[in-house]
Amino acid sequence: MDRDDPAYRGQADYSARMLDLYDPIVIGVLSRLFWRCPPEPFLDNYRRNITDHHLEIGPGTGYCVERSGLPDGTKVTILDPNRDVLEHTTRKLDRLEVTAVEADVLKPLPVDGLFDSAGMNMVIHCLPGPATRKALAIQNVAAVLSPNGTLFGATILGRAAKHSWLGHRVLTAFNRRGAFDNLDDTADGLREMLAASFEQVDVKIVGSAAVFEAKRPRPATGS
Fold first, then answer.
1. Is 223 inside a domain boundary?
2. Residue 58 domain boundaries
3. What integer pLDDT is reported at residue 90 of this predicted model?
4. 91-124, pLDDT tens digit by residue?
């Protein structure tokens, strides 16, 4: 990704070294400490919604897909602008048949066919604002889902959420350095973005995060 691209800073920290440490440190400790978010609600969301025709947006380390219950050999497409992420996740999910696509979710997605499910876990808070730009990412995913498809995942909410003192400090620091761009992200705003592209939307709050499901993509305008 070009360094001048608005989305560059949100994905730049995911180096090979950082990805090696991500699961035990960020998921195992820091998510609970900063955001009061244990992994169980995210994993339940994956186990409930993932299908054997799945697209994973911003797969991180593949943590949730790995623990989702997919049988060995299942075909999964992963999409991210960061090659380190794609290479790490492909190795991590070696029991699955992984197709890696280097692309930005803020642009039309260069993938084949329609998917029955798409995961987007801990991605939206890293996307550059404003909300209208983040909504483009939702629209782009909806465009590659089947008529009964589901988009699901989670995101860290902004300053209006009920952050702990420590979480608020970390939120401010991450936004200052560009790793997050979510100070104005709210649960209601997330619902509106999802409802613009999907017929059925559910958003639940867990600590400082919103865990969401959006089902049945709306037809694209003009179709």
1. no
2. 8-217
3. 97
4. 999 999 999 999 999 999 999 889 999 999 999 9
Is 29 contained in some domain?
A: yes
In the block, tokens 């998510």 appear at 31
Q: Average pLDDT, stretch 212-219?
A: 97
What's the Cα-to-Cα distance from 104 to each of 5, 83, 87, 206, rounded to whole Å? Answer: 10, 12, 16, 27
How many distinct structural domains can be found in the chain? 1
In a domain, 213, yes or no: yes
Please report the DSSP string for the chain in residue order: --TTSTTHHHHTT--HHHHHHIIIIIIIIIIIIII---SHHHHHHHHHH--SSEEEES-TTSHHHHTS-PPTT-EEEEEES-HHHHHHHHHHTTTSEEEEEE--TTS-----S-EEEEEEET-GGGS-S-HHHHHHHHHHHHTTEEEEEEEEEEEE--TTS---HHHHHHHHHHHHHTS---TT--HHHHHHHHHHHEEEEEEEEETTEEEEEEEEEPPPTT-
CATH code assigned at 119: 3.40.50.150
Whether 156 maps to a domain, the answer reads: yes
Per the prediction, the chain carries an average pLDDT of 91
Residue 155 has pLDDT above 60, yes or no: yes
Percent of the chain surpassing pLDDT 90 = 79
| Contact by Cβ (8 Å): 125, 155 | yes
Single pTM value for the model: 0.92
